[in-house]
Structures are given as C-alpha cells and as structure tokens.
Design goal:
By secondary structure, the chain is α/β, with parallel strands linked by helices. Helix 4 links the parallel strand 5 and strand 6. Helix 1 packs across helix 6. The longest helix is centred in the first third of the chain and has 20 residues. The model has no long low-confidence stretch (mean pLDDT about 95).
Length: about 325
C-alpha cells in the first residue's frame, strides 16, 4: 500500500483530499496541529500525525520518528498554510518559511517523496491583463499585490529552486464547496436579504469546486508528473452577480437588496477593520489584502495545459457546485 501525507488535513481542501485518498486505498496520514479539529478526520483508517511547522527542529524530529517507524511517504500534499493573519508578516512565516523548512527537512532526512504537491493560489500573479481581460497564462510574470500572494509565490520559487525536487504546484482560483466558510458568509448575507458587490467596472470571476481540485491532485499523481505548475478553475468565466444569483436561487429566491460598494469605501472599511482586529490580536475577514483581492478585475486563467497534460475535466460548473454547497450548508444547519 502506497502512503500519502496530507498536511492541513483538518482544513477545507485538505479534508477532501484525505477522503479521496482513502477511497483510493492509500495509507493516509493526516498532518495536523495539536489544536486542529478532528471533525472531518473521524475515519479509523486515517493515521493522525502531529506536525509542528512553527518549530523546524521539532518538525524534523517528528518526521524522523515517523520514518523510523513507517518509512517515508510516497506522496505528500502540502495544504497547510495561512489565508488570514493578525500581522501580514505571518503570511511570509507560515506560507513561505514553513514550506521551506519542511522541504529542507525532507531532503536532510532522505524523505523526499515521489511527488510533492503544493497547493498555491492564482493570487501569485496579482492584477494583470486587466486592460484586455485575457486569461492569465503560465508565461506571464507574477506580480502579486497581496502579502498572501507574495508568500505563496516565494514558496513556489523555493520549491522550484531545489534540483530535481518532484514538485507539482496547483494554483486554484476562488475555491468553494461544503465546509468552506468565506463564501458561506455570502450565503448567510443573502439569506438575510442583503447582497454586496464591489466596484463599478467590469469584473471577470472564475471559480473551482473543491472536488475538482481533488480530481486534479490525483490525476497528477496518476500521471507521475513532476516539476510542473498548473492553474485550476472550472474553465468558465462569470460576472460579479452570477455567484450570488445562484445562491439566491438555491435559497428559494428570497427578497434581496443589492448594494454596490465603491472601491474607496471598501478600502477605508477594510483598513479600519484590519486596524481594530490587530489591536484586539485577531484576524479580520476584511483587511487590506482582502480589499486588493476584491478590487482585482480579471481572474481569468488558462487551464489548457492541465487539460492537455493530465486529462483534467472539471465536473462542477458553478450552478451544480453552488447547488451541492448550499444543500450541504442547509443539511448541517449552517443556513
């Protein structure tokens, strides 16, 4: 039985990858923190492995102990990371330095797997091609304008700099699905009769359902691809109201007041929310990074390479994905 380690296994994307790995009868190790929720990791076939990415020496010992008892992993999917931080410098520490330390430890311990999958983000490219609204391609030069995007780009660059390191990088656009909490806030707002949109200029949005990310990850493993990076979306382009309109439909078309927020107002509110959150020592959903993400007008990306090289075929267009997601929220009592 081949083995797979999924870091960030208790999280949104990681928990779905764990489930599919079990379906494929792999030996599954769920990399978690001591404080991580086990809500989606209850299957008895899952081996829980506490990994302390914040302390490199402790992480090295944890990996070494595992190697002595079980050997090295055949595959590693690195989902662990930060999408919200109290201080922007934490993005660099968590997403870049901890990924670097992890890769270094694997090399030092002779534990480099057949494939090291890194879940990155389309945000590593930033707001480019915004004049002509053309898809971002792998030939474009990344220009991240967020601390989050920059931290992921630095992690990508480090993995790519290691000679013969078998990385595969996936750069998903907006990821949604059951268990996801940010798009849930949109659904909750619509249920409460309010829908927000940002800016008055055209905005082209793209999305990818979480199960299509899982599909891509395991296609890459099956194809034994190495040292490649791919964009991930469902292959369609949507306008700013499409997502909220589909949510409204699944909620039974409640009466909704559509509020369009000027970018300058969003910027002020985001900066104030970030300031007060930092004073309280917490993270805020609205912050300067989030403002730049919402301000970005072009989220198109070229998924031709992953279609041609891996046979990726998105199974969830937005309508189907939203329908399944809202049904899950309802079933779990979130809505």
């Amino acid at each position: 039985m081949e083995s797979i380690l999924v870091t960030g296994a208790s999280g949104f994307i990681g928990s779905f990858i764990v489930e599919e790995a079990l379906n494929r009868q792999l030996g599954v190790w769920a990399g978690i923190r001591s404080s991580s929720s086990r809500e989606y990791l209850s299957d008895r076939q899952i081996h829980l492995l506490e990994l302390d990415f914040a302390h490199p020496e402790k992480l090295r010992k944890q990996l070494s102990d595992h190697q002595k008892a079980n050997g090295k992993f055949d595959y590693i999917v690195h989902c662990a990371g930060a999408t919200k931080c109290v201080d922007k410098s934490e993005f660099d520490h968590v997403n870049y330095l901890q990924t670097k330390d992890f890769a270094d430890a694997l090399g030092e311990l002779d534990m480099i797997p057949k494939q090291f999958v890194f879940i990155s983000t389309l945000s590593v490219f930033g707001p480019i091609r915004e004049k002509n609204y053309e898809p971002i391609t792998e030939q474009d030069t990344p220009a991240p304008n967020t601390a989050y995007g920059l931290s992921k780009l630095k992690a990508e660059a480090y993995l790519q700099s290691i000679p013969e390191f078998p990385y595969v990088i996936y750069r998903p656009t907006g990821v949604y699905g059951p268990r996801e909490k940010d798009y849930f806030l949109m659904a909750k707002s619509i249920q409460q009769h309010t829908d927000f949109s940002v800016g008055f200029r055209r905005q082209d949005l793209t999305f990818v359902y979480v199960k299509d990310i899982v599909q891509a990850v395991f296609l890459g493993i099956e194809k034994e691809v190495s040292r490649r990076a791919y964009f991930l979306s469902d292959g369609e382009v949507y306008q700013s109201r499409t997502f909220s309109d589909l949510i409204r439909k699944e909620l039974g078309n409640p009466f909704v007041i559509h509020l369009k927020c000027p970018l300058i107002v969003l910027k002020v509110v985001s900066l104030l929310a970030e300031f007060w959150a930092k004073r309280r020592g917490t993270s805020s959903t609205l912050n300067s990074d989030k403002y730049r993400i919402m301000k970005q007008r072009n989220w198109q990306c070229d998924i031709t390479p992953i279609i041609e090289e891996l046979g990726y075929s998105p199974e969830y267009k937005l309508e189907r994905g939203v329908k399944e997601t809202i049904a899950w929220y309802k079933d779990k009592g979130w809505l």
